Amino acid sequence: MLVYKFGGASVKDVAGVKNVAEIIRMANQPLVVVVSAMGKMTNALEVLVEKFVNREDTAHVLDEIKQYHLQIIDGLWGTRSSPFLDNFYTYFSKLENKLKHTPSLNYDYDYDRIVSYGELLSTSIVSAWLTQTGFNNQWIDAREILRTSNDFREGRILWELSEKLVKEKITFGNCNTYITQGFIGSTVNNQTTTLGREGSDYTAATFGHLLDAESVTVWKDVPGVYNADPRWFPNPELIPEMSFREAIELAFYGATVLHPKTMKPLQNKRIPLFIKSFVEPSLPGTRVHNEVPMQKVLPIFIRKQNQALVSIAPLDFSFIVENNLRDIFDIFTEHRVKVNLMQNSAMSFSVAINYDQRRFEPMMDLLKQKYKVTYNLDAELLTIRHYTPEVVQQYTGHCHILVEQRSRNTANFLYKNE
Ligand code: ADP
Ligand code: ASP
Ligand code: MG
Question: What residue's CA is closest to ligand 1, atom 10?
Answer without folding.
Answer: 257
